[in-house]
Amino acid sequence: MSDKIEITERETGIVRVFAVDIPADQIAAFTARNGRWPLREALGADALDPDHIEVFDASDLAGVGLPKYLIDGHAIPEDQIAPMRTRLDGQTGTVLVATSRAFANTAQTLSPRAPLRLIASFSEAHTPITFGALPDASAQPQQPEPEAPAPRKKPSDAAMSGRVATVVLLILALLVTVMVWIAG
Fold first, then answer.
1. Which of 108, 109, 150, 152 has the largest CB neighbor count within 10 A?
2. What's the rounded Cα separation, in Å, for the pair 70 and 174?
3. Would you give the DSSP letter of residue 52?
4. Inter-residue contact 152 to 56 (CB < 8 Å)
5. Residue 152 phi/psi, 5° resolution?
6. Helix boundaries (H) for the chain
7. How many Å apart are CA 90 and CA 47, to the nearest integer?
């Protein structure tokens, strides 16, 4: 396959489906990561996160089918699947499904080659986020009330004792000064 696939570092919501054209008994070796990783090499990927790649036999989806799996499992809208339904339903053998997260937020150019064959790329459905009015007035943001002055704290007993002692000492100093003045 000579087609190039551009991956941006901010890519999200893209699901790519590949056919893996090798015998079933070679799939384990193809997906194994033991020094080399043949799957990554076949994709031509610089960075690849195996947690976001699925490799399975299409017959594992018996009763569900690949189209329904993509709709329900990856939130692909029906209108994107419809033109590809016959091709997806007819897919036999091993399938690789890679989401945008598989490319580890790394800008790169994929150059898939045999045994991989791109079947299709889909965009996950995104429901726009809307914020309606809050249902109850108690849930509305409140304006902060002006702060009331903090109530004055009652002075502690130690502070009161210190004030009384200061007043007593001033009175005694005044009396001593008056007596010295009278005596002199």
1. 108
2. 98
3. G
4. no
5. -70, 135
6. 27-31, 38-43, 66-74, 78-81, 85-89, 157-183
7. 31
